[in-house]
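Protein entry
_____________
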Amino acid sequence: MKKMLVEAKNLLEKERASLVLIREGQEPHIDFRSGLIPLWEAYRDGNWSGGVLADRVIGRGAAFLAVDMELISIYSPLMSRGAVEIFKKWGIEFKYELQVERIRDRSGKGLCPMEALLEGIEESHTAIQRLNQFFLERKGG
């Protein structure tokens, strides 16, 4: 793993964070909230091009955000097969501890809402449009 990704992974574990973003010349961005909102907010509010991400769970939604953020390397203890396929398609380096078919919801009984929202989507711009619409509607615009 590249130096920045090792640093992000170490911070994720040490801080018990939900995600860590690192980009050369910037302070690490650390978030402790669960779900995709913290990554979506970082996507919306900052320039992470050339950066790396360590995140507790990476599904298709996080993968599409990483593509659009122009991240170069990703680490997650838990990654979906769909995320792996997206990273391979766009040539993004990735590492995971456990790969699962799909990300489940918090109860473990159903599909993660983001996985369901993006099912069948193959293009980054379409996925980003859906994610933006989803989160903006919940935030009231």
Remarks:
- The chain is about 45% helix and 20% strand.
- Helices lie at 3-15, 37-45, 60-68, 81-90, 113-117, 124-139.
